[in-house]
């Protein structure tokens, strides 16, 4: 039997304006809705790699796409973690080479270096309904992470990652590094608002 849907309520209006996005040259402001700063995976496909691939493969994928974050999938194409450029360039691969006598950092499996999904910071899509960019910045700063994943639950109850906030991406669009101390960041934010308002 086909599922029945109820019609939505309609309204009439005599005159109104169109709702248009602010033409601010791609710049973000701390008071903007949080969704404006989210990378929406429904609109742009995330970069992915199999967990058995090597760190070198992940780095090459990142270079080709100019992205600094790659999502790691298992053999069933289930998301199991993510790997950032920062992790690849960190001391962690060097320590692995030294302690485990690995021939080269290029041969380290992605699964050994990735951040497992269970350790990833996540927020729900519902949380973002009234959130602002400032809330996202404060969250990233409070939990000291450059990445914040966004999770959604389907009608059937299945959970999936639908987007991400990336500190570097937000910093570029805001015009200052959001990982700086909060007082300096607010001063730069005020200057940006004066310039672009």
Task: Name some characteristics of this structure.
CBS-domain; alpha/beta; about 200 residues; 4-stranded mixed sheet; 8 strands
Could you walk me through the main structural features you see in this protein, from its secondary elements to its overall organization?
This protein is α/β, with parallel strands linked by helices and 197 residues long. It has one domain (34-196): CBS-domain, CATH 3.10.580.10. 31% of the residues lie in helices and 18% in strands. It contains 7 helices and 8 strands. It has helices spanning 55-65, 85-88, 92-100, 110-113, 133-142, 167-174, 182-196; strands at 39-40, 48-50, 69-73, 79-84, 115-116, 122-124, 147-153, 159-166. The protein has a 4-stranded mixed sheet with strand order 1-8-7-6. A 4-stranded mixed sheet has the order 2-3-4-5. The longest helix is centred in the last third of the chain and has 15 residues, at 182-196. The model has no long low-confidence stretch (mean pLDDT 84).
